[in-house]
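Practice set, problem 2.
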Amino acid sequence: MKEVRMLSGFAVKAAPRIVPLAGQRVALRLNERRLLRILWTTAAVLIAVGFWGIYSKTFLPDFFARDLVWSLTYLNGETNLPALFSTLLLLLAAAVLGVIALARTAALDTYRSVWTGLTVLFVYLGVDEGASLHEKLIEPVHDLIKTEGIFHYAWVVPYGLLALTVLVICLRFLRHLPRATRNGLLLSGALYVTGAFGLELAEGYVHTLMGRDTFIMEILITIEEALEMAGVILFITTLLHYIRIALPDFELRVGLKER
């Protein structure tokens, strides 16, 4: 009930009293199939529209909003729809990894530090994708070791070493996982690395040989982005499957407490 008080001749309504609701819970349920369907569909649409934008800008005469569509959907662009989607994909993967890391830490699992490390790695990859941090390494690395040809995009050198280091560190961790999870993680990693590194090496060669503004380069960029998106979505799929089979009773609670 609201109270009305008189203050210097003015009627002031007191704020309604907040009654704590003890024991209240809100269940957040994830529809795995619907989420994955949305992710795959969004990726397919972005790749298709992005390639159409590249094709129309390269071969077709100008038409209404052509350059706008191209800028919003260019697959190698920054601060546009594909870049935003790729960033969110990596951060979603980091969130799922974080849930698993919490569960494994609570259970004092032997590999809890690996799950936590992978979470941190994917948070960084998400930030890197959004801010294009890796591209800022091209000139310093190029000046340091004079890369050219397939290593024209010199960031692949330190990042390639990082990827190899992560694989070596995770070998024993991968062996202990269920076969389906292990195979899913390896396949998703292979897709992502093929896109992020393999196609980048091919683009470096084409850039050196033919220049940057060629349709062959744009085809390689399209394949690269498609492989990266497919790799991350398959990675998320594998993690969700792992949660379902390995952590069937896992429950995440969120609460606040005073210090």
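Problem 2, part (b): a different protein.
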Amino acid sequence: MGSYLNRQILRIVWIVLLFIGYQAATAFLSTASSLAGTNPDLAAKYIGLTLIASALLLWLFHWLYQKQLAKNNPRHFGHTPLTSKRLWQFILLFAIMFGIQLVWSQLIVHHILPSPSNQKLVDQGVMQLPLWNTIYDCIAAPYFEETIFRGFFLNFFFSKNTLVSNVLGVFVSGLIFGYLHTLSFNWTLLLYASLGWLLSFSYLYFKDIRYNIALHMLNNILGSI
């Protein structure tokens, strides 16, 4: 029992540290964005820090994820080939994500719900530094978030391939994903949590994190248009 608790605590620490690393890279880019209009030279240095931090983190995330799967992989996650059936299933999941975003945007347009504060920050960064923020939000961020919230989280804490473990894993992963995007309990949390639940389901269904990353990327690209 003691060894199990120690192992779980160590896993929590690892996930927290990886999330902090991801937030640090994001903070470098946010600082570059805020300086872009007043101090371009310093902004360029922070862009450099963002690129270096992101490259190191991408390598670290990939290495740790592959190492974790090699050590314990009861669900047999890995690389599954893209068949016509999986392609249509992927398109269906993306259509559901698009539908969620569309309904939510209409609720915002008609002033039924407020615009997510997280999205306001993203939009502000894109306005200040369009190219680098768009690249980061549409490529780097989906990789980091899917590896943390789906790859590591579900593999570490809900690794048993049972109905109870799968349902709880999807629910908790999506809820944490939603809360960390809002940092409050409100209706906006439900938006991000629903996207997190869909992505968690995708990970367990396809058993290949690349499908998740692609879904997340497409969703962010759609949001940036």
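Answer key, part (b): The chain is about 85% helix and 0% strand. The mean pLDDT is 88.
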